Amino acid sequence: MKRLIAVIFALAGHTVSAQSPQWRCLDDVRFLIGNWTGHETGVAGIGHGTREYQYILDGKYIYATNTSRFEPQERNPSGEVHSDWQFLSCDSVRSKTVLRQFNSEGYVNQYTLERPAENVLLFNSEALENSPEGTRARLTITLITKDEFEELFELAFPGQDYMEFLRNHWTRDKQPN
After folding, report:
1. pTM value?
2. Read out DSSP for 50-93?
3. Taking a C-beta distance cutoff of 8 angstroms, is the pair 48, 173 a contact?
4. C-alpha pair distances (Å), 129 with each of 81, 108, 155, 167, 177
5. More confident residue, 71 or 5
6. Cα–Cα distances in Å, from 144 out to 16, 128, 147?
7. pLDDT > 70 in the chain, percent
8. CATH number of 22-172
9. DSSP E strands: which ranges in the chain?
């Protein structure tokens, strides 16, 4: 019995130590931590946004809040306000960084991260809630400098190719001295 308990504790210790590097998958996205101001163009028109990324729950996740305000246009005379929450996490079983977005319009998008190039993060959807079945989404973040990135959101409706839905240019807010 003592040997069984020792084996269980040894395995538990191995599992904990084996899992600790899993949080390194957030290293690819840590440059996002901070406050950002964005200029946005797309289907909703021309807009401006604010976004904040921060570590939460002992650094195991990154949480972001976003608010974008789009100017009135012919198709939408009142303008539009979009808000979303984002959570970045590490799926150690799949060795993937996962992004989950909860949008004010009622959509929930789940993506996994790929690294197609040095300064590019490509998030491909793996689940879209409240979208027609077969819809796909893609989010591409291109790092321009440590204080500037471009974000491209594309959608592909069933049987169609991706189309540009929103393009954002984000600049890090400077910290007060």
Report:
1. 0.82
2. EEEEEEETTTTEEEEEEEEEE--BTTBTT-EEEEEEEEEEEETT
3. no
4. 20, 5, 14, 22, 43
5. 71
6. 37, 29, 8
7. 85
8. 2.40.128.20
9. 34-42, 45-56, 61-70, 80-91, 96-103, 108-117, 120-129, 136-145, 148-156, 163-172
